Amino acid sequence: MFYFVTIALQGFCIYHSIKYRTAYYWIFLIVFLPVIGSIIYILTQVYNKRDAELITSGVTKIINPTGQIKALEKQVDFSDTYQNRVNLADAYLEAGDNSNALKQYNAALDGDLKSDFYVVKQMMEAAFNQNDFKAMVVYAEGISNHSEFKRSRAQFLYGLALKAIGDLKAAETHLSAIDIRFSYYKERVAFAEFLLEIDKAADAKAVLEAVISEGAHMTKQNKRLYKSALVQAQTLMRTIDN
Q: CA-CA distance, 95 to 207, in Å (whole number)?
């Protein structure tokens, strides 16, 4: 249980650091000193009542996701507010129920796809899980001018959607935005795969070398957390070298 709580705290801190563009040394501290680094980061950079509630909510979802959904459904029945709808939609998305997640997100936004970056980003995740790439493009275009869109996972998902519909040039532009050191390992490996598909092996190799190098300096916990991405990076590297 301690391991999962540590991973949840570390993931929250890294997400928060990237989202709010705090100094890069915080990433190093969180990655290499998971418990102490996360505590220091929370106390000095993000701690307030709302953030504490977010962390508690995240741990609860890991322990009992079905119970979390039922509780949130009751909240919506009791008080049909924007935030209650979004909370329920997030729970559905975490549980893999993408259709219900999209239903609740749409109800929260009431058709205004430009009103909330977070919600539309979540809708992109749900649409991606359903391979609905055309919908992803529509969602992305609604938030592309938002300050948080640049170098975010939403921009990466937009790149994947553009790739799926055949706009490879635009896809490369948006996928490359996620190539940020000490973060987005899974996404960067996917970007390298894309580069190989469009015959840019040298560029793909550079991305993979960076990921593998960073992986070699990870803590044991992070190596376990990002194991699949690191293994995939090494597999692709062998494909290039051979």
A: 32
